[in-house]
Every structure is written in C-alpha cells, then in structure tokens.
Amino acid sequence: MFFPIHPALSSYTWEIHSTVNRLELLNANMAPPHYPWSEGFNERIFLNIQLGIDIPIIGGENNRWLWYIGLPVSFNMIDDFFEQETAPVIDTDYWFGTKIESLYRLQLTWPKNISLRILPIFHESTHIGDEFALHMKDENPTDFYRINVSYEAWEIVAGLDEWESGRGNAFNLRLGMSGRWNTDGYYSTPYPSEIGSSLQPTSSYIIPSRGNLEYFGQFNTTIESGFPSFKNWVFQGGFELRNRILFDFFSTEAEKRSWTVNTSLGWYRYDDNVAARRIGFYMRLLAGQNPYGQFREQDGYFSFGAGISLGL
After folding, report:
1. Per-residue pLDDT, 141
2. CA of residue 100 relative to chain centroid, distance
3. Which is nearest to 113 in space by CA: 61, 53, 56?
4. Residue 207 carries which DSSP code?
5. Domains with residue ranges and CATH for the chain
6. What is the pTM of this model?
C-alpha cells in the first residue's frame, strides 16, 4: 500500500523527537544563562509551539507485518509571551530526517507485537531568538556566546506492544539510542560573518563538543477502552528516562552526562479505525537537562506544561 494513513509506530506528544503539532503553556524554574529578562522568570507562563509532519513515502501491511518509510519534520519555538517589555522568542529548534519503521504482530496477549524504528540520518539545529541575541550584542557582548548547535545524527529504537487503533489497550516498552554522525561535535562557534564580530569576542574560545551517544527508555500506556478513557477519547500516559551529553563550552575535559525524566498524560480523540490523532489535551513534566538548543548546558531544569495537540 502506498502512502499509508499513518506511520507504523506512534509519535507521542511528549517525546523529544515528536512530530505532533502542539500548543503548550509552561512554567520553568530557571532562566537560560545570561537571559536579559530573567527577573520573575519562574513566575511567568511561556508559550511552546511545535509544528510537525511525518511525510509518507511508501508503506505496506498484511495480517502480520506493518512497515513504513517517511520523512519526519518538526519545528519547536519557546516564546516569553507574557514578558511585558518585548515578549521575545527565547529559542527555536528544528529537525528533519529519514525514518524506517516496522511492526510484527504476535499471537500473544502481551506483547501483541514487536517493533523497530530507525532514523538512518537526521539533521538538528537551533537558534536563540533574534531579540535575545541583539539585546546582548548591545548590552553585554563580552559575557555572551551564541553557540551554533547543529549536527547530523542517527537513532534506533526497539519496542514491545505498540498501540494499534482497534486492537485493544497497550502497554508499550521502548529502548533506544542515538549518536551523531559528524566528527566536529554537537556544537561550535559560528563564523563572525554569520553573526557579526561583536557577538564573538576574539579573546574567547569555544571548545568543540567531544561526547557522543545518548540512551533512553520509555514506557507508554494507551487505554482504548475502560477507565480513564471514554467514548472516542483515548487515554495515553508516558514516561521516559534519557541520558544525554551535558553541553560544556569552555572545559577541556570530556563533557559530563545528565539524566532527564520526561513524563506526560492526556486524552486524545481518534477517528474510528484510524490511528491518526486528531486533537488532544495533555499535561507534561520534565526534570533534568534543559532540552532546548545551546541551553543543554543547563542541568537542574524543571518545567511543567499543559496544552492541546493536533495530529494530522
């Protein structure tokens, strides 16, 4: 079957590499390093907008197998929307790549299937907001560094008991790992021609990243029938533990690593016999490493958000 309606595996709202469209209000316990509008930061609500799509290329299905090849694309923006002076964009992240997925159905109560997801290559890049950068250029250029976080990477995920619409409740376990392809690390300083010499003091030197690989485990539950689901509103809850490189731009020693807990629960409406998520309401909590762009140098980060999602 060409152009299947949906990928073989679910893209959950709360995942780091999710393609689900969402609008989220969140609060965080600490401002990014050198953020000009940090006063009262932990008392404000922020806007997190994510736009994504999984472009199908080809796929197939029979009674036992489901497979899919596609092109995932996602854009994420954090906006200090309720800051009264300028409501600046804090950070924008985007990623795109290639994806291969397969699912094999078992004749068991649990797990009902086994699955594999491979991203052979994807590109991820990030940019701090223009107002953020321009303010620092004018006010404090010697104490500010704009880091070019940009890299190509791969990811592989193996799972048990992926949820399939119409096939009952699922208790899904996933284990995965990811690593970069490029040899020059996750980040570097941009060339002066990209940002202007005043944003990169000549006396500074950013140490290119040296660490590689990240590891994660997930548990996702989908209750298709029974409490706490109702009618076409399906309950989904998820929990992820992820170990990543903690960015360190100035140390000559190898970067440290950081554990991050990312969890969410919500209700999502699904059309009959179609596994595409149409609209949902959810809450999300993250504790550990700041997940956004060059701010991945920041540990001890905590955020809580609530929002709506729309999957196509």
Report:
1. 58
2. 18
3. 61
4. P
5. 21-310 (2.40.230)
6. 0.86
